[in-house]
Amino acid sequence: MSTYSPQLLKGTFQTIILKLLTQHKKMYGYEITQMVKQLSEGSINVSEGSLYPILHKMEEEGLVKTEKVNIGNRVRKYYAITKPGASVCSEKIEEFSQFVKTMATILDPAILSK
Amino acid sequence: MIKKQQIAFMEADLARRGLIYTPLREELLDHICIGVEGRMSKGMTFMDAYLEALQEFDGFAPTQIQSETVHNLKNITMVRNYLLVGLRNLFRQKAFFIINLFGLTLSFVCVFLIYRYVQYEMTYDQHIDKKDRIYRLVTNREVDSGDIRESAFTGAPWGPALMQDYPEVEDIVRFMKYRLSILISYDEADKKFLEDHLVWADASVFKFFDLQLIKGNPQTALSEPSSIVINQSTAIKYFGNTDPIGKTLIYEGEHNLTITGVMADMPQNSHFYADMLGSFNTLGTAFWNIVENWTILYYYTYLLLPEDYNAEKLSAKLPGFFQKYLGERAQLFEGKLQPLPSIYLTSHRVGELKANAKLNQLYLLSLIALFIVLLALANFINLTTARAMQRAKEVGIRKVMGGLKSDLFLQFLLEALFMIVLSALIALAAAYLLLPYYQVFTERPLSFIADTWYFEVVYLMLFIIAAGLASGIYPSLVLSKLNTTAALKGANKSSRSGTILREGLIVFQFSICIALIAATLQVNDQLKFINAKDLGFNKDGVVLLPIYSSGAITYEKTDFLRRQLNQIPGVNHTTVNSHKLVGDQPYGAGYIFKLPQQPADTFPMGRLHIDREFVDTYDIQLLAGRNYDPSFSTDTAAFIINEEAVKTIGLERSVDAIGAEISYYSQNENGNYLRTGKVMGVVKNFNFKSLHFAIEPMVMDIQPDRSHFVACNISSANISQTLKAIEENWSVIWPEAPFTYSFMDSHFDELYEAELNIARLFSVFAGLSIAIACLGLVGLASYITSRRIKEIGIRKVLGASSQHILGLLLKSFVALLILGFTIGSPITYYLLEQWLNDFVYRSELGLMNFLLAATLTLVLTLVSVGFITIKAAMSNPVKSLRFE
C-alpha cells in the first residue's frame, strides 16, 4: 500500500500519538515513528519534522509528561500520557469517528460507485 | 556501540548545523544515534553511518524542525529555555563566572558595610524629638591679637539671660563637664570610682534630649541643688540591686549629692554622653563659685526655639546681647547657633563633648563605596561583552530562526540580573557573618537589619535593578544588535565603539586603582607622621595616674609622692602636674611680661603647673636657662616658658627671655592674688593638643595645689611588675584617690580617633577595591589573549620571539595605565589636599606616592596580565593554528 498524502494526515498525528501512548507505558520519538510505520504497514509515515514539534507542544500543554533516562553515553527522552492527555485522546478519537461517519455519509455514493 | 567522543562529535556537529534549542537537540541526537547504531551493526564506519543517517533523517533540515517546534511553543517555555541556556552558559565558562561572581559579591559586601557605617554616623541625635528646634550656642572669641578661638563653650549666665531677654528662646539647658575624672564615693558600701562622664545639667535636660527616666520625676529630678540622676549601669555599679533613690553619693569627698532619679543608659549615637547628671545649680552653691562669671567660657548652652523659627533672626540679635551684658568687651565675642543634628557631623571646636565625625571623610568613604561598585560593574560589563562575542553564533542562528531582537535583549538582560541577584544574596550572607567583626573594627553598634528595613528592601531592589540594567543593557544591546550574517560567519571582531567603551572602562579602573593606592599611602603617611612627629616630649613609657585630694596639696605632699614612686624599681622619674600632656585643655591666663628696658606688656598664654621633674619625665629639651633646683628655695617662684612664648613676646633668642619678669593673677582660697617671678628656663615647644591645632605659647610654674596628674616615666622592661608595685604601694603613696592608671600613648590615639577609625576603614576598602580591579584585569587579559591566540601563533611561526609577543600584548595595557594615571592623579591630589588641610601639622603631599601607586598598579597589572600572556606567548603555535 502506498503512503497517504501529508495533507490528509496532518490533523491525525496528534490522535495517533496520544492513542499509542495510552497503550504503552512510555515511548521515545524513534520508537513512535517505527510503531506507526509498523501498525499502518508502511502507509502512514510520521516524519521527524512533524513528530517533534507536536511532542513539544503537547508537553507544554501538559498532555504528555517526559522523563529523561541515561542510556550509555546519551540521554533518551521518554514520553508518557497524562490524565488530561488521556481525556483529550478519547475526545479526539470520538471526534474522528464522527468525522469518518460524516465523510462516509457525504462520500458514500461515490465510494459505492467505485 | 557509539563511543563517547563520537556522541560529543555529533552533538557539536548538530549545534554547528544550527540546532541550538537544547531540549530538541538532545532528542534528535538520540534519534540519529539509533539510525547510526543500526548502520554500524551492519558493518558501516561511524562517519559513513552518521552521514547516511543524517541524509535519511527527513531530508535533514534540523533547523526547520527546530523553528517549527519553537514556533509552536508559547513564549514562557521559550523564556524558560533561554534562561536555562543562559545559566548553562554562565556555569560553563567557569573562570568568567567566578571572577564576575566574586568581584560583584565582594563589592556588594563592601557597599553594605560602608553603607551601614555611614548610615550610623548620620543617626547621631536624630532620635531626639525636638531636634529641629534645639540649637547649641557656641563662641568665637578673640584671644590674641587677631586670633579667634572657636570653642563649643559659652559663659554660664548667658543662657538664662537669653531666655529672659528674648521671648523666642522658649527654654534653655546648660551643661558643665569638668575636664578631669571625678572621684565619686558611696560610703555605706565603701565604694569609690573615678567617673569620666558626670555632666552637670539644668533640670530642663530631660525636656530637651529625650533621656528616659526609669525612676524619678523628670520635671523635678534636677531642680534642687545637689541632686543627681544616674544611669542604670552606674546604679548597679554602686548599689547592686538595691534601690538607689534617696541614697547619697559623695562628690570629691566633700559634697553630698542625693540621687533623685535613674535613667536608661544613653545610646552611643548622641554628640554627648553622660553616666551621671548632676543638677546645674549645684555649681556655685556647694562649690565652683565662678559660675556667675560672664567671660569664663566653660559651659555648653542649648536653646529651644519655636517651631519653624528661623535661627538667623536670633543670631542677628546676639551682638546686641553681648553689648548689653559685656559692654566694650562685647566685640571679643561672637555667638553662633548650631542646629543640634549638625553638631556631630560638622562641629570641630575646642571642647567638643565627643570626638565628632568629619562629614568630608564620610563622603570620602561613600565615594569609595561608589568606586567599588563601579569597578565591579565595569568588570562585569567588560567581561560579559567580551565573552558575549563568543556567543555571536547563537545570536545569529536565533535571529535566522526569527527570534525577536527584544527576546534576545531580554535574555541577556535576565542573565545579567541573575548574576547581580546571586551576588547580592551571597553578599548579604557574607555581610551577616562579617558584621560582628566589623562592629569591633568600627567601634559602632551596627545592626544587620535596620529599623527601617522595609525601605532598605526597596533600596536593595532598586539597587539590584539599577546595577542589573547598568551592567546588562550594554552587553545586551551589543549582542542583540549584532548583524545576522556577520554573526553567523562567526565574526569575532568587536565594533569600534565597543573597543572604545572597553578601553574607557579599563582607563577608569586604572584611575581609580591609582587614586586609591595613592590615597591609602598618603593617609598612612599622615598617620605615621603624627606618630613620629617630634611632639617635643616623650610619650612612650609614660604612665598617668590621676590624683585627687580633699585638702590642700602641699609641697611636702607632692615631694613625698615623688619620693615614694621613684623608690619603686623601674620608675625613672615622677612629675606632678596640673594637666596631662595629650589632649588636655591647658588653663589660660593673661601674663604681664616685663623685659629689662622695655615697658611691660600683657599676653594671653596657656598655663601649666609643673614641678622639678617635669622636664626629665617627659624628656623635654631645655633650650636656655635651667630647670628647677631643689637646693634653691627661691626657685619655686620661677617660671619656665616655651619657645612659642618667647616668640610671642617678640624676642628672637631664647636666652634673651631668661630673667624676664612675669606676673599674673592666680586664685587660691583667699581669692585673687598677684604672682610674680622670673623666667628661669626656656623649653623647646611641645605639642599639647592634637596636631589639628597649632602650638600655643605656654607659661609654667609650680603650684602644688593644682596637681591633678602624676606622670611616671617607667622603664620598658617589666612594665607589669612596675605597675603592680605602684598599685600595691598606692595606699601609702596617695591614700585619698583610688588607683587607676593609663598610658600616655592611648590618650594620644584618642586624639586621632576620628582619623584612625576612618583611616583603618579606608585602607581595608581601598585594598579590596584594588583586588576587584585586578580581578577584572585578569579576566580581560585572558579574554584578549584568547582572541589573539591565532595572531600570536602566526607571529611565532613568522619568527617572533616570546619576549616580543609579551611586550606586544602588554603594551596596550601600559598605554591605558598611563592614561589612567594622567586622569586619576590630579583629582586625587586635590581630594587629599583637602583632607590634609584639616591638620595644622601635616605630611608633605608629594609626587612620590602617586608614582609609587602607578608603579604598584603597573606591577599588579604585569603580574595579573603577564601570567596569562606569558602562557600564550610561550605556547606552541602548532596548537593554536591547527584548526584553521
Architecture overview:
- The complex is a heterodimer of chains A (114) and B (884).
- In chain A, strands 1-3-2 form a 3-stranded antiparallel sheet.
- In chain A, helix 2 crosses helix 5.
- By secondary structure, chain A is an alpha+beta fold.
- Chain B has 884 residues and is of the alpha+beta class.
- Chain B contains 27 helices and 25 strands.
- In chain B, strands 1, 2, 3, 4, 5, 6, 7, 8, 9, 10, 11, 12, 13 and 14 form a 14-stranded mixed sheet that branches. In chain B, strands 17-18-23-20-22-21 form a 6-stranded mixed β-barrel. Chain B has a 4-stranded antiparallel sheet with strand order 16-24-15-25.
- In chain B, helix 23 packs parallel to helix 26.
- The longest helix of chain B is centred in the middle third of the chain and has 38 residues.
- The model of chain B has no long low-confidence stretch (mean pLDDT 82).
Summarize this entry quickly.
With about 110 residues, chain A is of the alpha+beta class. Chain A is about 60% helix and about 15% strand. The chains are: A alpha+beta (about 110), B alpha+beta (about 900).
Percent of sequence in beta strands of chain B: 15-25%
Distance between the termini of chain B: 31 Å
* Main sheet properties of chain B: 14 strands, mixed
Number of strands of chain B: 25
Low-confidence segments of chain B, given as residue ranges, are none
Mean pLDDT of chain B: 82
Q: How many β-strands of chain A, per DSSP?
A: 3
Q: Helical segment tally of chain B?
A: 27
CA-based gyration radius of chain B: 38 Å
Q: What is the terminal-to-terminal distance of chain A?
A: 18 Å
Please state the average pLDDT score of chain A.
85
SSE topology string of chain A: HHEHHEEH
Biggest sheet overview of chain A: 3 strands, antiparallel
| Class by alpha and beta content of chain A | alpha+beta
Portion in helices of chain B? 40-55%
